[in-house]
Structure formats: structure tokens, C-alpha cells
Amino acid sequence: MDYSTLKQIIIDQKEELNSIFEKEKIIDREVLSLSKYKTFLKSGLIKIVTGPRRAGKSVLCCQLIKNKNFAYINFDDETLAGLKTEDLNLILKAFYEIYKDPEFILLDEVQNIERWELFVNRLKRQGFNLIVTGSNAKLLSKELATHLTGRHFSLELYPFSFREFLKFYNIEYQQGYPTTRQIALIKRELEKFLLTGGFPESLKESSPKKYLSSLYSTILTKDVVLRHKIRLIRTIKEFSNYLISNFSCQITFNKLKNIFNLKSIHTAQNYFSFLEESYLLFLIERFSFKLKEKVTAPRKVYVIDQGLINAVSFGSSKNIGRLYENLVAVELMRRKAFSPDSEIYYWQDYSGKEVDFIVKEGLKIKQLIQVCYDIGNYDTKIRQLKSLIKADKEMRAKGSNLFVITSDYEGEEKFENKIIKFIPLWRWLLSE
Fold first, then answer.
1. Which residue among 98, 299, 353, 379 is least packed, with the fewest CB closer than 10 Å?
2. Do residues 70 and 21 lie in contact, with contact meaning Cβ atoms separated by under 8 Å?
3. What angle do CA 209, 215, 217 make, to 5 degrees?
């Protein structure tokens, strides 16, 4: 690439970044309250921030270093499409001219450049404090393990949580005893959150669904089809649409192979891994003490943001119970950052009794969680409670908390000598 062109692109990106902080509403993200990230900038290690496209990774990084002298380039810029590995030294030259003597270097969506890890390594050896973002978890982790072993630490950023969603709209709530007015307002906002999700840009759009549909298409095209050179484009798109439409449901790779007439289970596994590493979907395994059963049992599929579900899946807003479950799954995955030893599973026995989520920390079962929108139905309620008790006994989860997340009901009930806590979804999402 011509040096003068590259330099102008970097200058334009700098101006665009500055305008975001001048004109856009920016909120502090919760992930930075984690104690292990309080020394984020002080560390000489390479800082890696991963997460879905448009989840706010770039803004988060710029918030961290906005009062520092830092150089910035976004590799997800179509004007940089012709950039080659041998051009990377020109970037450093442009940085010195534009930013003089930068203390930090921020490389945005770095996975778009071949052999990026060698460039990062070279910058590290030259003494730069580096922050790198990417939207492909597997690609980054693979290269980091190969070339940057022991010289980096990672931070994973999701779309807005419900707490961040309320903060964006300047809605305050009292943790202990919110007023009736506050509760009504929060419940109204939860209904909106279930439909629009938490991608920051979608909250600024007059048509969030249109924006999210476009974002989904971009992720599929750039991060899946083009990156993995997939020839059966229609098949991978139908494959992805099917999984998003079946959010909060059990799947097996053998069933997916048969539905889409794929050559092998291995192909189905690859297709899913491409979608997972691009932060579209994730799986939760069934809990079992037997390794073989855990590996062979169906998994449950969830979507990274409920806004994407409503943009892609026809009639998804009618599946309110499954939307509740998907939202809880995403929040549990987000909270794993606060408790690195935690593992998330679901449970099911041979008779079909099921518990939506098992939270395990180390060797201890910490929580058993049912998600039930319609707890007012007596038969449904009893079925949910019996499943909780059965799972609690089978897993010998003494001292664990048994929860039912509901739409509105709150309280405690004793059932078969066990205390069951009922908590509305809004309150659980806002709990510490």
C-alpha cells in the first residue's frame, strides 16, 4: 500500500475516533470493575480484548487510555483491504509522524491482517505498551498460544448487560428496596431489552432490528464465510439461521448433519465452531459425573444477544420463556469473568426432568437455577420444583442455592424440606 495513502487513513481514523467521544454517549463498562483488570494499563503484558463485533471493544480501550498518548489503527476499515504483511512497518512509521512518541498502541480488529502476531511481537520487543482487539476468539487464542505465550492477558467483552442498558438510558435503581414506580419503569425497560438486546449502536438506531440484521449479515460474511473460505454459502447461512431460531433448545451434531445433508458430523462441528468463535452462539453441556455421558449428551444452544434473535428468528418474540432462558444464559456467561473457576451446565435425567442451569465452582455445586416465565400455572410450577429437588439429590449438592427465576413472583417456599427462592428476572439481572 502507498505510504501517503496509509498515513491519511490513520489520520482520518484518529479524527473519527475523537468525534465519537465528543458526540456519542459513552458509559463505563462493568468488566473494568474486576480487580484483576485494575492494573490493566500498568502491566507490560500485551492486553487482548475479545468479543462480538460492535460490542464496544474499541470504545472500552480508548476509555482506558484517552488521557494517554496513544496511536490507533482499525484494521476493519475497507480502505485497508489492500494492506499486506510487508506494509506493517509503514504503520509504525506513520504512528511516529502522526502521534510523535506514543506510549500505547491500539490495534483494532487485528485478526484481519495475516501474520499479525509477528508484528505485535516485534512491537512488544521494541518496548511499546500494546492493546489488541479482535472478534475471533479461536483465531486469537491459537496465535497467542503459539507466539505470545506468557506475554499477554485477556479480557472478554459482551454486549451491554441489563445494568449497563439501564445506565445508558440514565435509569437509576435502588439495589435493596426500589420504589413501585422504579419497579414499573425497570420492568418496562426489560421488555425493551428482551427485544433490542445490548449492542450499543443498536440503541441509537431508529430501527434496531434493521441494524442488527445488517450486523448479523456482516458477521456471517466476514467472520465466517470469507475467513474460512466456505463454498456452501447458502448452507452455512441456513445452518446459522436454524440454530438461532432454535435458541434455548437441545441440539446434536448428528441431527444437524442430517438436517443439512452434510458429509459428516465433523463438518457440522466445524460449522458450529466457526459461528461460536465469531461470538454468535455458544453451547452449554449437560452435567454428568460420567465423562462419556457429558461428551455424548445433547447440548443446549444460546445466542450471544437476544436482539440478534429477534432480528433473525421469525416470531421469536412469542417465545418469551425461551427468551428469558437465553438472557439468563448470557448473563451467567458474563458473570463467569467475575468468578473464573465457575462452570455452567444444564441437567436432565432419563425421565426428562430438567434443570436449566447448574453453576459449579471448583468441586462445589453452587446454584441450581430454573427459568420459568409462567410460574402461575400450578402444574408447571410443581414440575419445575420437582426437577430442582431431583437434581439437588442426584448431584448431592448440599448447601447449594435453589432458584426459580420468574416474570414477577418473588418469595421463598419450602418444598420437600428444601427452601426454594423465587426471584423476578429483572431483580436477578440487577443483583450483585
1. 379
2. no
3. 105
